[in-house]
Amino acid sequence: MSDVASREYDLTPSEPRALDMPSPASVADYVALLKPRVMSLVIFTALVGLVRAPGEVHPVIAFTALLCIAIGAGASGALNMWWDADIDAVMSRTRRRPIPAGRVTPGEALAFGMTLSVGSVIVLGLLVNMVAAALLAFTIFFYVVIYTMWLKRWTPQNIVIGGAAGAFPPMVGWAAASGGIGLESLLLFLIIFFWTPPHFWALALYKSGDYARAGVPMLPVVAGPSETRRQILLYTLLLVPLAMSPFFLGMAGLAYGVVSGVTGALMLLLAVQVYRRREGAPAEIAARRLFGFSILYLFLLFAVLLVEAVAPAGFGL
């Protein structure tokens, strides 16, 4: 592992500042610590799990659940940035984050993340139910401790195993509405779990230099681009039929079957292009296209599941 992983890093690009001095942080910096783009995906997938769960849930309870899940996700992001500030400081896409840029101290980020973590779990348990709270607590623990502190710097399979953290929100939403864990929520978990490797490995292909400098053993750095392309294709081959299975199992309607089939074919086509294009600009373009489309792919799958749940009559179901 590189010297970056030693956790000795300069907090500011200009002049040092004592860790116990107040930082010049703004509200925007604390919002950035929450990783709002990731948080938005968490809220959306949790909403789908909540809406598709059996039974009815009071709108106030549903709002409370989603708010707690959102805060828990943001807390995980803040704790991730606290631990990974040394890595973030040397990667081009993360060096402007609040901690490596010197706008927020590590201690402030740690206190912020821990406060939100504990608060979100307690409120969810008291106002919604203990099953959802336990799942949220485990999700935060898994992302911060298992993935961020352990897997990310230890194994090229970090994204595969760590991807479970991002796959839990639909289960938390389902538990918030039903008080339990259903087969469909497990299926939603698996869709996100198998979506994560091709999504992030596509990014890692054209950001491999960043990960190498940071000492993060991402698959392209450890196993090389060729093996990464092969793994992307294999996971996509598993993902596409898995994503269509809610339709074939009778858990989703015809609209979902059509959308999952068409977008799955496009996802597979882009994965094949990544596999075949090995050199220069065409290879990078193919990886960028797959990364970008993978976000749309997951969004469309869950969007149709949501619409089918709230307006089934509009689909003739």
TrEMBL record:
UniProt keyword Thylakoid, yes or no: no
GO cellular component, one term: plasma membrane
Gene Ontology biological-process annotations: heme O biosynthetic process
InterPro entries: Protohaem_IX_farnesylTrfase (IPR006369), UbiA_prenyltransferase (IPR000537), UbiA_prenylTrfase_CS (IPR030470), UbiA_sf (IPR044878)
Pathway listed: Porphyrin-containing compound metabolism; heme O biosynthesis; heme O from protoheme: step 1/1
Gene3D superfamilies assigned: UbiA prenyltransferase
Enzyme class: transferase
Subcellular locations according to the entry: Cell membrane
One function term, GO molecular function aspect: protoheme IX farnesyltransferase activity
The UniProt record lists the keyword Membrane: yes
Residues spanning the membrane: 61-83, 104-124, 130-151, 255-275, 295-315
CDD domains: PT_UbiA_Cox10
Similarity-based family: Belongs to the UbiA prenyltransferase family. Protoheme IX farnesyltransferase subfamily.
Note: Carbon 2 of the heme B porphyrin ring is defined according to the Fischer nomenclature.
Descriptive protein name: Protoheme IX farnesyltransferase
Gene encoding the protein: ctaB
